Recover the amino acids of this structure.
């Protein structure tokens, strides 16, 4: 939030602000909407339903950030937190160029960048991270914990996400049959279990993925 606050200090009241990849109306979105005319864009209708409920002062639009059509030079600032890491590298530069077009002269861009598509990547972790984001945002089992509950995902041979230090760590792997599965570390990598599980990708995602993480989480509350 310190970067959002730093941006706010540079903007006059009621500036036109675009929140690209706004999600479910988190603290940054709520803070921006209090002082500015905010338009939030997200691809998930479920997330936007939450955002509309939590941030009634803002406007929201369901669209793909890489395809949305917005008026040139119409925003004083564009904020994109945790979105660009989910955008394929080939689409990142065109998206940044479009953001530049949407900004008025002297406008500000606040964004976070990902480091995807490493040379030793086994499986692209971004779809799984997006599923986790949508599942956990405002989840009742996570909303009132006394501290942050952290889940890390790595899809490369070299673990750049330090998954063993998180409450749940997911290492994407492939077995000899080429099926995608997870090595699961729970309890900060220091207690509980280390599990190696392989399931057919679609079945794992649609039936067991979030339920399994929920089961790992509940005993630790």
């Amino acid at each position: 939030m310190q970067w959002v606050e730093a941006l706010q200090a540079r903007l006059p009241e009621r500036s036109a602000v675009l929140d690209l990849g706004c999600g479910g109306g988190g603290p940054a979105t709520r803070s921006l909407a209090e002082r500015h005319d905010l338009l939030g864009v997200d691809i998930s209708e479920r997330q936007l339903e939450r955002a509309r409920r939590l941030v009634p002062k803002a406007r929201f639009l369901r669209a793909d950030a890489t395809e949305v059509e917005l008026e040139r030079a119409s925003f004083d600032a564009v904020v994109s937190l945790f979105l660009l890491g989910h955008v394929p590298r080939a689409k990142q530069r065109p998206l940044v160029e479009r953001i530049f077009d949407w900004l008025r002269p002297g406008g500000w861009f606040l964004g976070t960048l990902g480091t995807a598509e490493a040379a030793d990547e086994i499986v692209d972790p971004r779809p799984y991270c997006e599923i986790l984001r949508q599942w956990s945002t405002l989840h009742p089992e996570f909303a009132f914990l006394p501290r942050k509950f952290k889940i890390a995902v790595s899809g490369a041979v070299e673990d750049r996400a330090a998954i063993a230090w998180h409450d749940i760590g997911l290492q994407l792997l492939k077995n000899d049959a080429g099926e995608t599965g997870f090595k699961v570390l729970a309890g900060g990598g220091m207690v509980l279990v280390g599990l190696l599980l392989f399931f057919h990708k679609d079945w794992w995602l649609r039936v067991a993925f979030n339920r399994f993480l929920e089961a790992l989480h509940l005993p630790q509350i």
